[in-house]
Every structure is written in C-alpha cells, then in structure tokens.
Amino acid sequence: MAEKREYRREELARLAGITVRTLRFYRERKLIPPPRREGRIAWYDDHHLARLRTITALLERGHTLSGIAELAEAFDHGRDVGDLLGVAGAPTEEEPVHLTPEELADHFADEATPENLAAAMDLGYLGTDGDEIVHISRRLLDVSSALVHEGIPLAEVLGAAQQVRTHADALAELFTDLVLRHASEQDLPRLRPLARSVVEAELSLALDRRMRKQD
C-alpha cells in the first residue's frame, strides 16, 4: 500500500497549479474538506490534491464554482461502492467502470448535475470509491451517454431506467420461478443466457410493432 502523503499549504497549491489565495478561497467555499490540524499547521493529503485537480478540470469544462460545490457535496455524501457491490458481490456479467468526476462530466457534459448524480446514485448506477466514482455497468454507462448525446435529457433517461428496472425485476422473477418449478437453483446461472435471449428477442419484436404503428 502506498504511503499516505501530506502537504503544507504552499506545497499543495504548487502541486495543484493554483495560488495559495485560490486554495484559501476554495476552502472558504467548502469545495475541499478541512485539513488535518497539528497545532497551527494545516496538513493536506492526496485526497485534497485530487479534489483540487478535479475542480480545475471541471472549470476548464465550463462548470461554475457553485455547480462544482453542489457536485462536491453530492459526491461526498454518495453511496460507497461497497453498498452496491459488497453485499451481493460484483455483477456476474456487467463490468463496473471507475471514473473521475471530470471523466463523468465528459460523458454527460452539463447534464452531470447534482440532481442527476443523486438520482443515478439512488438508482444504484453510481457509487463512490475514494476520489473516484464507480458506475455499476459499462453497457449502461455507454447507452446513457449515447442517449444524452442524441439530445435526450439525462433526467429523463434515468426516469426511464427506473421504469425499466421495475419491468426487469418482474421478468427476472418470472424466469426464476419458471426454472425453480422444474430444476434446481444451481441451474439458474447456466440457464441465465436463455432468459436474456428471450427478453432481447421480445424487445426487438416489440420495437418492430411500435415503429410500424408510427408509419
């Protein structure tokens, strides 16, 4: 494990590429957490350095300080990734994605608001891991990002995702009950791809029917 580094105020500002005055301003705006105090000396660590670099990156992407402060608050109070993965274990087929806050902003531009971040956390899409954000599924991240780039507001994408979650839970229960009536619980992982194929085929046919109605 890497040794935890600590920095005096002047060294932290130099490493972050800002002035001491700017660092003081960020502290007053509560954009970074308080330092560790040792008498009259304030000690900062790599967490503070990462947060300062994130602030700089978000400012360069057009975010305001007020927006960054709201993002920082949502980020600090977000669900730990252990809440998403630790209890039930990692997803068996989905690949989690680690993101810095600025990388998340790159995916969703000005749609990466505190409200949308909180909604994604409530949905279980996002968790936090130190100074990084973890998305539960690369596929869902890519689809959400693609829809936003098509002009669909992220809030609506997340609202639709909540509805899809409800239907998906019902489909999973239906398939599980079907298998358990005729096989054992140990057969579920082996037969899981069959359930996914049925859902994908039925959704494809449903989209065909829906598009024909639009003609």
Query: Assembly state here?
Result: single chain
Number of helices: 10
**Beta fraction of the residues?**
5-15%
Distance between the termini: 61 Å
Shape: elongated
- CA-atom Rg in angstroms: 22 Å
> Share of helix among residues?
55-70%
- Average pLDDT level: 86
The number of E-state strands comes to: 6
Largest sheet: 3 strands, antiparallel
**Going across the major beta sheet, what is the strand order?**
1-3-2
Which consecutive residue ranges, at least 5 long each, have pLDDT under 50? Answer: none
Structural class: mainly alpha
Secondary-structure element series: EHHEEHHHEHHEEHHH
Would you kindly provide a written description of the structure presented here, covering whatever features stand out?
63% of the residues lie in helices and 10% in strands. The protein is built from ten helices and six strands; from the N terminus they run E-H-H-E-E-H-H-H-E-H-H-E-E-H-H-H. The strands form two sheets. A three-stranded antiparallel β-sheet has the order 1-3-2. A three-stranded antiparallel β-sheet has the order 4-6-5. A hairpin with a 2-residue loop joins strand 5 (126-129) and strand 6. The termini are far apart. The mean pLDDT is 86.
